[in-house]
């Protein structure tokens, strides 16, 4: 039943506008492998899923759970999982979270708000200790 709410229902609801945007799935994002430096476990290198390269710098649509990073600075992330299962808590990896950069409007979200977003997808080849994915000019799809 969760499949209907997480994938199929948004597709049906937003079906008329899908032609203009490519749907980015968590299955694709989580197919990226992360190579960890054993001398410094906080430093990692992504080995991106090959299918993502053609999506980089393109307009995409993605659904997920909002994770506030710094509300005062309007900094949020989008997670494949709710907060209790996100990578901060050890239940998933950095490949299951996307850093969000919203258009000029200040956004207000609650933890685990389930949203549909559009924006420009980017991959970070040398993230250091940061995010490996980001969505720029992000907008909530209404």
Detailed description of the structure:
The chain has helices at residues 2-13, 26-29, and strands spanning 22-23, 33-37, 40-47, 59-70, 75-79, 97-102, 114-123, 133-140. It is mostly beta strands and 142 residues long. It has a single domain, classed as OB fold (Dihydrolipoamide Acetyltransferase, E2P) (Beta Barrel). The protein has a five-stranded mixed β-barrel. A two-stranded antiparallel ribbon has the order 2-3. A hairpin with a 2-residue loop joins strand 2 (33-37) and strand 3 (40-47). The radius of gyration is 15 Å and the shape is globular. The two termini are 23 Å apart.
Can you give keywords for this protein?
39% strand, two-stranded antiparallel ribbon, 8 strands, mainly beta, five-stranded mixed barrel, 142 residues, OB fold (Dihydrolipoamide Acetyltransferase, E2P)
Topology readout:
Blueprint (H helix, E strand, L loop, with lengths): L1 H12 L8 E2 L2 H4 L3 E5 L2 E8 L11 E12 L4 E5 L17 E6 L11 E10 L9 E8 L2
Parallel strand pairs: 1-4, 6-8
Antiparallel strand pairs: 2-3, 4-5, 4-7, 5-6, 7-8
